């Protein structure tokens, strides 16, 4: 394949969506993709072992969408990689990673592809995300900054120049095929969270850059796959993912990991949040017990 194909003409785009018991949001997202004005778009949904009839509903209402049944909950990174590999095997020049709880205006992909064509050095093209419940508020202006030493991430809410230790959120991002071929797919040690910042930190060690399609505006419901009842579980997952991110990306991990745990645990103890404190400890033990993939 011509390595510069995605920088000219009408590159083939595959959109990758991961679904887990979220058919309502996924159907809304797919409906917005069906309205995209960009003509060279195909979509694959990876279903992570849903038990809510997601697969049947998606196939019935969107027969043009390729559905891959993972059979179990692989987590976001592994599920996403299933879709990425399928897209690349099908000849995708660009891969659009998209959360299932997003709604994309009809011109979104046109703008993302245009930005990729304008900037051949761009490995990732980020999107401006707005809160779905209040579109007047910016959730993330393309992404944010990550401090690998302590696992801290923050969102930009206004235009900035993306540089070192910046990342673009994978709630909606257009990825160039050559980037995956050069540095690989998402790190599968993250069940949820940090997959985007980790990938961006890896990519920044190469020639590829992050750019933002500033004229995009994707609505993001954020956290539609989780609920309040899952909060201890999410605390444990975030703890494990943060420790793995620090370990992978910081030369000061031996300092950063204890500091992160002390801050995360201390805050919950001081507030009397004992269930949360227990979840942090469980996350630490899981990190220690299970080897890094």
TrEMBL record:
CDD domains: GT_2_like_c (cd04186)
InterPro entries: Glyco_trans_2-like, Nucleotide-diphossugar_trans
Chain coiled-coil ranges: none
MF-aspect GO terms: glycosyltransferase activity
Transmembrane residue ranges: none
Boundaries of every Glycosyltransferase 2-like domain copy: 16-135
Keywords assigned: Glycosyltransferase, Transferase
UniProt record similarity statement: Belongs to the glycosyltransferase 2 family.
UniProt name for this protein: Rhamnosyltransferase
Lineage: Bacteria, Pseudomonadati, Acidobacteriota, Terriglobia, Terriglobales
């Amino acid at each position: 394949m011509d390595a510069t194909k995605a920088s000219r003409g009408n590159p083939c785009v595959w959109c990758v969506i991961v679904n887990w018991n979220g058919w309502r949001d996924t159907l809304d997202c797919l409906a917005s993709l069906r309205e995209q004005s960009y003509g060279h778009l195909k979509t694959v949904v990876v279903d992570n072992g849903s038990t809510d009839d997601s697969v049947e509903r998606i196939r019935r209402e969107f027969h043009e969408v390729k559905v891959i049944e993972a059979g179990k909950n692989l987590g976001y990174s592994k599920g996403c990689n299933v879709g990425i590999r399928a897209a690349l095997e099908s000849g995708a020049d660009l891969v659009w990673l998209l959360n299932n709880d997003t709604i994309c205006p009809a011109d979104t992909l046109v703008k993302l592809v245009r930005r990729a064509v304008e900037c051949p050095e761009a490995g990732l093209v980020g999107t401006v995300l707005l809160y779905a419940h209040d579109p007047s508020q910016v959730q993330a202006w393309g992404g944010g900054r990550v401090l690998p030493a302590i696992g801290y991430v923050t969102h930009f809410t206004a235009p900035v120049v993306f540089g070192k230790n910046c990342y673009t959120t994978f709630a909606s991002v257009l990825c160039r095929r050559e980037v995956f071929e050069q540095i690989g797919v998402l790190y599968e040690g993250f069940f949820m969270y940090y997959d985007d910042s980790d990938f961006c930190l890896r990519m920044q060690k190469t020639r590829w850059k992050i750019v933002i399609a500033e004229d995009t505006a994707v609505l993001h419901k954020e956290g539609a796959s989780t609920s309040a009842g899952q909060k201890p579980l999410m605390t444990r997952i975030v703890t494990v993912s943060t420790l793995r991110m620090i370990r992978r990306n910081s030369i000061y991990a031996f300092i950063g990991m204890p500091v992160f745990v002390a801050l995360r645990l201390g805050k919950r103890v001081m507030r009397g949040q004992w269930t949360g404190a227990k979840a942090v400890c469980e996350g630490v033990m899981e990190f220690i017990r299970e080897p890094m993939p």
